[in-house]
Design a protein that fits this description.
Blueprint (H helix, E strand, L loop, with lengths): L30 H8 L3 H6 L10 H15 L5 H30 L7 H12 L1 H4 L4 H8 L3 H12 L3 H17 L6 H7 L5 H12 L3 H14 L8
Helix pairs in contact: 3-4, 7-8, 10-11
Length: 233
């Protein structure tokens, strides 16, 4: 592990199981004190959320280790030492955010999802046929960022608006299922989470110009047409 994560107020992150025991220390800062010390607002931190889940900073790590050691075995000047370590952590976080700002301005590009975040989102959407289609809140929680930040960074990462990407994936899944023999339109509708077969048919026609039945008939006709002829002597 050996990394630092910073989560602005209201953010959440899912931790996946690790095979070996590890130690975690949590530091909480009051919003007003945090912003006055770092001179950076909550909204500014939200823009950097993808890069705050795993911060590699040796000085922050050392300060957290110092605070932990003092909490386990407090000594003379206990309160002063913990406060000093906390202030150092905030200063280093502020410098880290300034580095991100400079990097963003120099590149002229919008901050995108970190690779691990994009992978989690795409994998979850890909598993929708079995798990049901996720809402924005679930996907945002997977990444440890807000819904609005997810929408901005997903577009920057893929060029797609996230709701349109999900709709496209849902349509492609419907096409694959309709091409299968023995899978009814009703079953396709249920597996993809539509309210009813009629609603599915309306949505499918709006996106393809064909009803599910028309699309299935077209696919079967093409399949029959592609079967090679048998020649007899």
């Amino acid at each position: 592990m050996r990394s630092v994560a910073f989560l602005p107020p209201g953010c959440a992150v899912r931790l996946f199981p690790v095979e070996a025991p590890f130690r975690v220390i949590n530091c909480f800062f009051r919003k007003g004190y945090f912003e006055s010390t770092t001179e950076i607002t909550h909204e500014s931190w939200d823009r950097h959320a993808p890069y705050l889940v795993s911060i590699k900073n040796k000085r922050i790590e050392i300060m957290m280790q110092e605070a932990y050691a003092e909490l386990v075995q407090p000594g003379f000047g206990h309160d002063l030492l913990v406060e000093a370590a906390s202030t150092m952590i905030l200063v280093e976080l502020a410098r880290y955010a300034q580095q991100l700002d400079r990097k963003n301005r120099s590149s002229g590009a919008s901050l995108a999802l970190a690779p691990w975040q994009l992978r989690r989102v795409l994998e979850r959407i890909k598993a929708s046929s079995d798990m049901g289609y996720p809402n924005l809140n679930e996907l945002a929680e997977l990444c440890g960022i807000s819904q609005s930040h997810l929408m901005r960074t997903f577009k920057a990462s893929t060029g797609w608006q996230i709701h349109k990407y999900i709709a496209e994936e849902r349509l492609n899944a419907a096409k694959r299922m309709l091409a299968e023999d023995g899978v009814s339109t009703k079953e396709v509708s249920q597996r993809l989470g539509f309210q009813s077969p009629a609603y599915f048919a309306t949505a499918f026609r709006r996106m393809t110009g064909k009803t599910p039945t028309e699309y299935r008939s077209e696919i079967r006709a093409k399949s029959i047409g592609e079967v090679p002829a048998t020649w007899h002597n």
